[in-house]
Amino acid sequence: MTVLSLTGIFAGLILMIFLTYRGHSIIWVAPLCTFLVVLFSLGAGLGDGRSLLTAYTVDYMTGVGNYFISWFPIFLLGAIFGKLMDLTGSAKELADVIVGLVGSRFVVLAVLIPCIILTYGGVSLFVVVFIMYPMGSSIYRAANLPRTLLPPAIAFGSFGITMTCFPGSPQIQNLIPTNYFGTTASAGPLFGIITGVLTGIAGYLYLDSRVRWAQKEGLSYDSAISGASVFSEDQKAPAPGQSKSPVSIQQKARMICRGLLPLVVVFVTLNLLKWEIVVSLIAGILACGLLHLKQIRTIPAAFTEGAKSSVTAMMNSACAVGFGTVIRIVPGFALLTGLLTGNITSPLKLYFSEALSVGVLSAATGSSSGGLSIALEAFSDQYLQLANTLQVSPGLLHRIAAIASGCLDKLPHNGAVITLLIVSQCTHKESYKDIFIVSVLIPTIILCVMLLVYGLF
Q: 43 with 30: CB under 8 angstroms?
């Protein structure tokens, strides 16, 4: 019967992937798939006739609620910070300068660089999607490249190496392991930097090859587009070289300062001054506000819009975590745990066990932060004991867990992927293949190679 319960776990996961791939909201899909998992487990000793109901009203909702309690302040402040950067023009000014420096020839870099700077500076990846799409759309329009190639570039720049690999990142995926391993946001620097650089190079080369393929095939901006953008024409940023007036060196310097300084404040206070992430984000918000006192009327709107977007992002992640919470209580999870953590006798096995545990649960929940929280809640004590026995640094466990959370999470039901495709008005069929390659396949392969190197040598 335990095997039947394990079958139910995978059946629920497959159904959730299918339904979200078809465009349905995870807010109702996750509870439905939760019921399916519990139905498979009823005969395996889950409980009495009320188990199906209590699995939703108690276990599922407890998982959702606990996730809100733990992480909503960060989601809220991160979204407000990002929206303030957006509405004051700080993010756009920084992106404009970068586009001007890089040029339309390197369109992929022109999208990746602002995404990386924004996410590494503390702007929520969900918010970066809304900031970068208008700018990216104008860049790809100027280069006459298919708009369906833009979502993979934004996904790779926003949901990738600055989210999990590079030490010091203020993103939530890099902060969760600190609660379980007693580490800091800068843990495992060498492993993270090497993995991030290799992933960045491989992802860029792939995206650039897709651009060159599109140019060779003669595809245009509107090729294979299913609908119009959710942004109106007056919301779209001007394409490179289409500015109405030239920008002086002094103006560029001010633009860079206004765009970079709030991000630097968040990064420095979090990593050098060791402030709590909530305080660091508040400092970033204050810095951005002080740099734009002439736009003081914009600040309340940024708070309102940021609060709204944070609830949407938080709800998508929390519902996925609720599904993962129910998975933990069914008998099949014990069998899965044994398969993932059994017979660890070497650092190599420990590395792969942790990466697989986090990766599988991130895939199951469609959430890197959700899967990471569930996996470390269940296994971190065991991994720490094994690390002490095998003389493995907790910092390395931190970095492996963070990176693994961002490898298998971006399946079709991932909330960030769904949000990105909705914003860009592209379908899974049009853009998901490239998103999968740069955000799932490449990071997974490179992580496995790095684990082999560290484990064997």
A: no
